[in-house]
Specification:
By secondary structure, the chain is α/β, with parallel strands linked by helices. The chain has eleven helices and 14 strands. It starts with 7 loop residues before the first helix and ends in a 14-residue tail after the last strand.
Amino acid sequence: MQESRTTLADEVERGLGAAPDSQTLPCRFFYDEVGTLLFEEICELDEYYPTRSELQIIDNHADEMVRHASTVIELGSGSARKARILVDAALRGHETVDYLPVDISRKALELCRPLCDEFDRVTVTAIHGEYGPGLDTVREVTQEARSVFWLGGSIGNMDRRMAANFLSSVAGEFNDRDRLFVGIDLRKDQETLHRAYNDRSGVTAAFNLNLLSRINRELGGSFDLDQFRHVAVYDDDIGRIEMYLESTADQTVDLETPPRTFRFAAGQRICTEYSYKYSLREIETLAANASLEIGRRWFDNERRFTIHEFQRPQPERCVESRNAG
């Protein structure tokens, strides 16, 4: 599996150098140390239902998810709260457990290391990097039956075609014992979604604006955060949240690395994240486009969120037919 390893400087030059209102910054760069901590704060907000909904599913069904494999792999480990539940469940069915978190945030990986102290039969191998290269490393480390978790609704950050291609690439080297568990945010009423991405306390706004702070810190940028605002809107036809940083004034921003100047008009937006939501029919289409089968699926009590199990298609069993008489 190949995945681009473009740097922040590369993406800023490309994304902000695009035509006005086509400018972008990839959401993976949210997660520096400050951004990781802000996202953990978002997960505790009353308005932000996805984390609570997904934790409820994992609390209720972790044993089913990990019963077949002693190797637990997590793409995007975050605070390791979900990992603790999954590892604990895996230990109920296995003598030892290998846990391999893959994350672009070093801060997130540091939060996983205490699992070794909490569970004396667990080995933690933290893998720093993007998902593609990280999974390449995972394959070098273990060939055991594996439960791979991609949680938090992160699949929503890819458009539906990209999501299917990614699932297909993840499962491309699976064996028949491996399973992929994906947390998927479901379509729902617009008001619930609006509140989730526009919290009253402004933590999501701070998380979004921190991307500009990171550019200032790491690339010598001159972004004035007081002249940008957080915007998050839901497009019901497409089925996605769209998150932007909007310039509130005509302004010029300079970068030291690379040496560039960008001009923004009042009202001009930089797209920082899409978050696609799915219907059950759209999940079935996703699986078909990824050439995968859906196994089990679980929902929270309010059916706001789901975890779906994906696997490689199983060969049809040959049934010998015999003529009677």
